[in-house]
Design a protein that fits this description.
The chain is an alpha+beta fold. The protein has four helices and nine strands. A five-stranded mixed β-sheet has the order 2-1-3-5-4. The protein has a four-stranded antiparallel β-sheet with strand order 7-8-6-9, with helices on one face. The protein starts with a strand and ends with a strand.
């Protein structure tokens, strides 16, 4: 099966050792250098044009909101690749290309719309899921990403606190 590797790099590539390391890791993993996008990335448009694309999306230490544009785009995080202590690549594929991929994956990435109260976080113990990222919305709610192992327990606790489950965006 032909793959179309894309490295999204939202900052300057000039003299960036993490960028160069990312390209080398992708090349050694799949045998070809990735196409590079440095401007805006629309995941749904990429998959519409290249359904077999694999997007390598960097998440830098301290950054927030990297996953929000995946919602509704049939995009699934299938793997994480550590580049450095400050950067990891999220490997993103179209959901239809991931059947059977990473069957041994233990962690899932759950997206939810929450009203973050102290009671909510007390109820959502680290045994069920941990907060990976949060994004504020114009409507005054928070879109949150959680990493966990048990989808059913996560959804039950989330809904029992009056919050909304948006879906699973990946596994690793």
């Amino acid at each position: 099966m032909s793959r179309f590797p894309i490295l999204y790099w939202p900052r300057s590539t000039k003299s960036d050792t993490e960028y160069q390391t990312a390209r080398k890791l992708i090349n050694s993993a799949i045998g070809e250098m990735p196409n590079v996008i440095t401007g805006d990335l629309n995941v749904a448009d990429v998959f519409a044009e290249h359904p077999d694309a694999v997007i390598y999306y960097p998440v830098f230490y301290g950054s927030t909101g990297w996953w929000g544009e995946l919602l509704g785009g049939n995009a699934i995080v299938t793997e994480k690749i550590i580049i450095s202590p400050e950067c990891q690549l999220m490997v993103i594929e179209h959901a239809k290309n991931t059947h059977g991929h990473k069957t041994g994956a233990t962690h899932q990435l759950f997206a939810a719309e929450i009203y973050p109260t102290s009671g909510f976080f007390k109820k959502m113990s680290s045994e069920i899921a941990t907060v990976a990222d949060m994004l504020a919305t114009d409507a005054g709610t928070i879109l949150a990403l959680f990493a966990g192992r048990d989808k059913n327990r996560f959804v039950n606790i989330l809904e029992s606190t009056g919050n909304s489950y948006l879906g699973c965006i990946g596994r690793y």
